[in-house]
């Protein structure tokens, strides 16, 4: 179990050069954009345009801030994503274009290599105490807003906005959370 503090997240340019990404976690550690098995990041999208293509990768996107954007995903009906929308999963290797609704947005992006891994992204509201079952081998909890304390077995800690908790070998355990926060739970497992 590792706490990943917001101030330590790595900043890097988008693959297509159109903006900047804040990398929360990647595996293997220090992997580049072509060599990761999985990656969790946030990005500010300030202009309409195409998404970077990642061959062999599945992606899920959630809107964290802003008025939303429409995604034109090849072969699908355009989808409006807002802060109230459920996260949207789609292949990262087909053409996708983003059209902002009204100003810049910040998104949360989860990507896994399709031939070996699968992932799930869910939003969790914490208002007091909550027990969250961890069903995958690797889990990451991002505290988006507010603050929380957590306990898993004998380990305890606290997260502030922007911090994340990375739990490896998490399968069939629970995370006890207390606080007032909006969080996102990423679950990553072998196919």
TrEMBL record:
Superkingdom: Bacteria
InterPro entries: RmlC-like_jellyroll, RmlC_Cupin_sf, Uncharacterised_HutD/Ves
CDD domains the record matches: cupin_HutD_N (cd20293)
Name of this chain's protein: HutD family protein
């Amino acid at each position: 179990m590792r706490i990943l503090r917001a101030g330590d997240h790595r900043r890097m340019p988008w693959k297509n050069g159109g903006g900047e990404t804040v990398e929360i976690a990647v595996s293997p550690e220090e992997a580049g954009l072509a060599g990761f098995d999985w990656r969790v990041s946030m990005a500010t999208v300030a202009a309409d345009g195409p998404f970077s293509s990642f061959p062999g990768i599945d992606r899920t996107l959630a809107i964290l801030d802003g008025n939303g954007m429409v995604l034109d995903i090849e072969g699908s009906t355009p989808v409006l994503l807002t802060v109230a929308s459920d996260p949207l999963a789609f292949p990262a290797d087909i053409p996708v274009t983003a059209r902002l609704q009204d100003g810049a947005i910040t998104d949360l992006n989860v990507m896994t290599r399709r031939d070996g891994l699968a992932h799930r992204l869910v939003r969790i509201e914490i208002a007091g105490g909550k027990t969250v079952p961890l069903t995958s081998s690797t889990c990451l909890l991002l505290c988006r807003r507010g603050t929380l304390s957590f306990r898993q077995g004998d380990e305890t800690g606290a997260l502030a906005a922007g911090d994340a908790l990375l739990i490896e070998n998490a399968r069939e355990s629970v995370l006890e959370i207390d606080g007032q926060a909006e969080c996102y739970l990423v679950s990553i497992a072998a196919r």
